Please model this.
Amino acid sequence: METVELARLQFAVTAGAHFLFVALTLGLATLVAITQTRATLSNSPVHTRMVRFWGQLYIINYAMGIVTGIVMEFQFGLSWSGLTHFAGDVFGASLALETLVAFFVESTFLGLWIFGWGRLNRWAHLALIWVVTLTAYASAFWIMISNSFLQNPVGYEQSGDRLELTDFGALINEGALTAFGHVMSAGLVVGTFFMAGVSAWHLRRGTHEQEFFRKSLRLGLGLSLPAVFLAISFGGVSFDFLQPTKIAAWAGDQERLSEAQAQMAAQLGPGDYLPPAGAVQGAGMAMVILAIVMFIVSAIGVILMSFRGAVRRSRVLHWMLMLAIPIPFLTTIAGWLFRELGRQPWAVFGLLRTEDAVSHVTQGQMLTSLIVFSTLFGLLMLVNYWLLARTARRDPSDVALGSDKPIETPAPALTY
Model:
């Protein structure tokens, strides 16, 4: 395998793994903020305990996401120095804003929220979680602005072998905003399915916290249907902004592929400008099919939820929601693969080929880097799964958040 293919595989593994953490973080942050709003307005003890239980799961996932995000960003210098040299002055601006938001503002307010239980006014404490949630959105926003530039470069002028930013506002275009909306709604889908599935597990086991998990299941399942609808809607609109080569690959039509190739060749000169059509079409089909499955699961769940006592006693509902937990994660990965594979063979579409974006390193060095990064991310994902599963299985009264018990989360993450 060539150096460029090893570099692409490494970034696919690390970025894909990190994206799973991000999706759950976005969804859980929103759900925790909504729940705390209800708890603050109503002084409901059960909703307060819901905030603590789901908030601790959110903190664990957030901490691991920070670690994977830091490790992943090393790759821009290690593996993709050609990209940062050529276009870093343009998309680096939005990446810098994302770093400021995620690693300073969001983490600072999250720390205040974690340690502010019982110390801050309840309205101030509520404001903190909404600041955390909104800054999580802002972080995702700037990431999508950077990614959308790579998909559709605008707002620049080329000076020698580098791009210079000339119009920052042009980066915030309709295509980027649509992609942001798609990611945000997809994150909410992940969070709602997770909340509903974990709640169904507790209800199936007959936990004594029936009211707690009944309300949690109703919240997660009730929001899942509009979230899936929004994700599908934004995804459909996003097709209006796809590159012609990606559209042709998605269609799988040889004639359209030939036309797209000819169009690109006429514009850029001789070369192969087609993405891997089979992989793009496969990822796209998986994304669409899984989205339909999620919509059906949500719709059936909402219908069953309307029957009296079904939330507590329906084994069909419980098993369906438990088995559905992985589906949104698989869908987000399929969608991410469709978006990124369809951009090939470009790192910056139409301007910088992927093979020219890779750092000048040997094949052996890149292989070593791939093994190290993949092993590290694999371990982080296993630790995150273990911590989430262990915490999710616990009785809500055993949750450490908001009490004097230490919160079980990886030590390195507490420094951010």
